[in-house]
Amino acid sequence: MHRKEIPVTERVVLAYSGGLDTSVAIGWIAEETGAEVIAVAVDVGQGGEDLDVIRKRALACGAVEAEVADAKDEFAEEYCLPAIKANARYMDRYPLVSALSRPAIVKHLVAAAKKHDASIVAHGCTGKGNDQVRFEAGIQALGPDLKCIAPVRDYAMTRDKAIAFCEAKQLPIATTKKSPYSIDQNVFGRAIETGFLEDIWNAPIEDIFEYTSNPAEPREADEVVISFASGVPVAIDGRPVTVLQAIQQLNERAGAQGIGRIDMVEDRLVGIKSREVYEAPGAIALITAHQELENVTVERELARFKRQVEQRWGELVYDGLWFSPLKRALDGFIEEANQQVTGDIRMTLHAGTAVVTGRRSERSLYDFDLATYDTGDTFDQSKAQGFIDIFALSAKIAAKRDLV
């Protein structure tokens, strides 16, 4: 493998998780490049070890500096909330769990690079996934002068080599048997791939799930009322919540009902199809509620066009273009479209489904007197025939021509 020449005095900012691969990457990068490594760990609600433990491990593994950031509220408000407002589901199913976390992490990596006068940012992605693009496209957008390296991709740092390096250097990180799955998680959801799941005929087993209970198990239904103000979830059952708290509470309640499991074959940006299993109970519950409230409060033509924007927005985020000009422009449209999305949605959470059972809003466009078929109907049906004649006129004229 061709060795990348980097000045001895160079500094590299590494996206650090605290696990084996990125812990080994600290020393690996130093040996391969001669550079000093600054480790940056960002908490986006993935759970696991305490941030201070992770920081100390990075230093023990050879980092000259180690920074940790509790970014859970930031991630929820600046990344998950826009996805909720956009009803974002890639390929109409995946609520962008991993794709949303990458730009949040990138923002902290670039800030650390500027702070520590580093000109290189490193990450632990492979060369066949989406995340390498999400990291590097984001880094280039926020720090156009920064370079990127990926030890697993650029230096063939396989897991076997990582374990051997760890043992040779006696690094303070466990080298237990690798899980058969590749897992990425944050407060918005959890992604599971590889292992026996790579055979797309194999069904997922219960052991792979953590955020959700088996939806087939008998249990009592759970009724919840979610309140929104201009598209922002602001209360659960009348109790005020932050965006983070709304996601966390619905992760627990919807997760207990087995809601938010997704098993799909998706189109990766790099051109291959990949089998992915997701669980995102809070995300699915919130998007379901938000979408239904839009049905009540958003005017028809705006709603129709927004659905087109939502699909493109989701594709841009999935493809790693969070910081792109088009994504920013679409953000403005989505924000404007959410101005009237205020009110309450009642849902029944049960047996793997979140079913909307009630809607109310002071900004509602639903007019009972126009909608009713009973006494009090204010819709003037006598005007319908003329409307239909004019509406269908162009098709009628074309039909007369084509039938000749």
TrEMBL record:
The keyword Amino-acid biosynthesis applies. Keywords: Amino-acid biosynthesis, Arginine biosynthesis, ATP-binding, Cytoplasm, Ligase, Nucleotide-binding. One of its GO terms (cellular component) is cytoplasm. Residues 181-397 form the Arginosuccinate synthase C-terminal domain. Its main location: cytoplasm. Pathway: Amino-acid biosynthesis; L-arginine biosynthesis; L-arginine from L-ornithine and carbamoyl phosphate: step 2/3. Residues 11-172 form the Arginosuccinate synthase-like N-terminal domain. It comes from the Bacteria. It holds the Pfam family Arginosuc_syn_C. GO terms for molecular function: argininosuccinate synthase activity; ATP binding. It is found in: Cytoplasm. Its EC number is 6.3.4.5. L-aspartate binds at residues 126, 130-131. ATP binds at residues 15-23, 124. InterPro entries: Arginosuc_syn_C, Arginosuc_syn_N, Arginosuc_synth, Arginosuc_synth_CS, Arginosuc_synth_type_1_subfam, AS_cat/multimer_dom_body, Rossmann-like_a/b/a_fold. It catalyses: L-citrulline + L-aspartate + ATP = 2-(N(omega)-L-arginino)succinate + AMP + diphosphate + H(+). Homotetramer. Belongs to the argininosuccinate synthase family. Type 1 subfamily. This is Argininosuccinate synthase. The gene is assY.
